Amino acid sequence: MTLTIDRRSLLLTGSLGLGALAIPGFAIAQTAARGFTHSVASGEPAQDSMLLWTRYVPSDGGAARLRAELSETQDFARIAAGGEIVTGPWRDHTAKITVAGLRPGTRYFYRFVAADGSFSPIGRTQTLPEGDAARFGIAVFSCSNLPFGYFNAYAHAAARDDIDLWVHLGDYIYEYHKGGYAPKTGAVDGRWPQPQGEIFHLADYRLRYASYRSDPDLQTLHAMKPMLVQWDDHESANNSWEGGAQNHQANEGDWNARRAAAIQVFREWMPISDEPWASYDIGTLATLFRTESRLLGRTQGPDIAPLFKEADPARALAAFRDGPWQDPAATMLGTTQENWLSHGLARSVRAGQRWQVVGFGTIMGTMRAPAEALRWLKPDATASERQYVGAAVMAAKAGLPTDLDNWGGYPAARARFLQSAQAAGANLLVLCGDSHNAWAFDLAQDGKPAGVEFAGQSVTSPGYENAVSIDPKQVAAALVAASPELKWCDTSHRGYMALTLTPDRASNDWVFVDTILQRSAKARAGHTATVERGRNVMG
Predict the structure, then answer these.
(1) Tens of pLDDT along 320-335?
(2) Cis before residue 271, ω within 30 degrees of 0?
(3) What digits encode the pLDDT tens for the residues 112-139?
(4) Range with the poorest average pLDDT among 20-34, 211-225, 491-505
(5) Per-residue confidence (pLDDT) for residue 8, from 0 to 100
(6) What is the DSSP letter of 377?
(7) Arithmetic mean of pLDDT over the chain
(8) Fewer CB near the terminus (10 Å): N or C of the chain?
(9) Alpha carbon of residue 121 to chain centroid
(10) What is the pLDDT of residue 342?
(11) What is the DSSP-derived secondary structure letter of residue 384?
């Protein structure tokens, strides 16, 4: 079904206007503006509390005291709960407050009030249910690259009444300089974020978030429902890990300083606590786990590029497969978080939660490149693109996965996680982003089902369709045939996922937007996959 949205109904107050990002210097003007500059947001939902976010700059640019108010009615005739918070330039004038004393499973209107009597835009949020819940809807997003197009996925999701929570699995922003990772023809409708250079320092990251958060569809999304958000790599730098990143060079300053700035600004601008990982009980229906798999515990991923320069690359790849690739010290999460997650899965099962839902930044399912992949490339493919695909094909022949920056580079850590889920008797649903394409995997460990993975396509970042010239259906069929865990994929659409949980069934829609090249809220459900509780495989 295709839904068309009346944009006027989305924000209750305070819309920025449709052409905001087409105005040169708009993001800079927003950071210099006074008052409530970037609408409102909510997150960290619980049965009786909610974290509320806004940004307020007083006329003197100094400290400011704000009051948060929640009400069950839009007129705020009765204030149900609230609190006060002080913000200022030390945190880029962003303000976060966790308000307690709320009722479970209840929708609230909320706003902030400044000392001069001015009001923020009004947002909507809702607490998590308590006890038995018949249904819960989650929209899942990732990879929102501003220059590649409009955030139509956000607009479409924001208008839905059947979604209770947003989950953003990372790449909420991108760190590149103007033109660094963008369409060859330039940004769609001039959607270049500020600053123009690559972001390294505290002020750079703050301005980049201010630029992204000026997008009206992203503001609308935040204002309509609570969001659980976690970073992946582009919130810091491409292919990041604890000690560095592919897109961080020695002449770009100290990595630890850059990482610290990225983490600080993420926590300033996102409606999230400072806890790096957390779990959330959705009544007795599910436990949802928010994880961290990039900057705090991840070891450096393997680099197999030198192996292709060996006299016998096939032999070198086989030796890597049987040796360094299996390193038990390699970890995505770090041992502390691995232990927390293992115990959390067991606790959730013991408590009678029907589903255990875990969000990761990168894909867990094993995927291998088919032998014919080189024939997919467009005639004008670059030498580096051909080299990359050729290496993936050769790696697949050696029994190695396509991507070693995701869980494919950490097989021992993947095994530990899946074994812990099996030992707990979990009904495991893994949610992932990162790849820009849509995937559905049956996850197995030691020859037994371990869970199901739904991996979402990007909001705007390009997928396989950007580099291949053949029918996407042929691409999908070949990838499924080459990858036993992969049951379905799509490599040509942008959008988001919509997961529906019921006590005995989980159903996931991959929602495809019509376009990202112009502003439109039209979309359709392109594919649906389901899993029955107790099976850990798709039906």
Answers:
(1) 999 999 999 999 999 9
(2) no
(3) 999 999 999 999 999 999 999 999 999 9
(4) 20-34
(5) 28
(6) B
(7) 93
(8) N
(9) 25
(10) 98
(11) H
Contact 484, 127 (CB under 8 A): no
Token pair 């429902």 in the structure block, residue: 225
- Which ranges of 425-504 does DSSP label H, i.e. alpha helix? 472-482
Q: Are 155 and 18 in contact (CB under 8 A)?
A: no
Of residues 395, 411, 479, 472, the one with CA closest to residue 444: 411
Residue type at 163 in one-letter notation: I
Q: What is the pLDDT of residue 32?
A: 67
Phi, psi of 433 (to 5 degrees): -130, -135
* Nearest of 409, 390, 461 to residue 246 by alpha carbon: 409
Q: How far apart are alpha carbons 215 and 178 in whole angstroms? A: 17
Q: What is the 3-state secondary structure (H, E, C) of 165-231?
A: EEEECCCCCCCCCCCCCCCCCCCHHHCCCCCCCCCCCHHHHHHHHHHHCCCHHHHHHHHHCCEEECC
Instruction: Write down the pLDDT at residue 356.
Output: 99
What pLDDT score does 321 carry?
98
Peptide bond into 195 cis (omega under 30): yes
Q: What is the predicted pLDDT for the residue at 17?
A: 36
Q: Are 41 and 227 in contact (CB under 8 A)?
A: yes
Distances (CA, A) of 111 to 55, 82, 303: 12, 9, 49
Q: In this structure, what token pair is assigned to residue 260?
A: 């610290």
Strand pairing class (136-141; 165-168): parallel
Q: How does pLDDT run across 261-308, given as a tens digit for each residue?
A: 999 999 999 999 999 999 999 999 999 999 999 999 999 999 999 999
Given a contact cutoff of 8 angstroms between Cβ atoms, the answer to whether 225 and 163 are in contact is yes
> Which are the contacts of 260, defined by CB distance < 8 A and separation ≥ 6?
none
Q: Measured on CA atoms in the order 15, 17, 21, 24, is the torsion positive or negative? A: negative
> Of 523, 492, 528, which Cα lies nearest the Cα of 510?
528
Locate 307 and state its tokens: 């192996």
Handedness of CA 481, 483, 485, 491 (dihedral sign): negative
Q: pTM here?
A: 0.94
Mean pLDDT over 78-105 rounds to 98
For the CA atoms of 61, 66, 68, 73, the dihedral, rounded to the nearest 10 degrees, stands at -80
Asked whether the predicted pLDDT for residue 432 surpasses 70, the reply is yes
Beta partners for 374? none
How crowded is residue 310: how many other Cβ atoms within 10 Å of its Cβ? 12
Q: Give me the pLDDT at residue 380, please.
A: 85
pLDDT above 70: percentage of residues in the chain: 94
Which residue's entry shows tokens 């649903």?
429
Farthest CA pair distance, the chain: 77
Q: What are the φ and ψ backbone dihedral angles of 113, each rounded to 5 degrees?
A: -125, 130
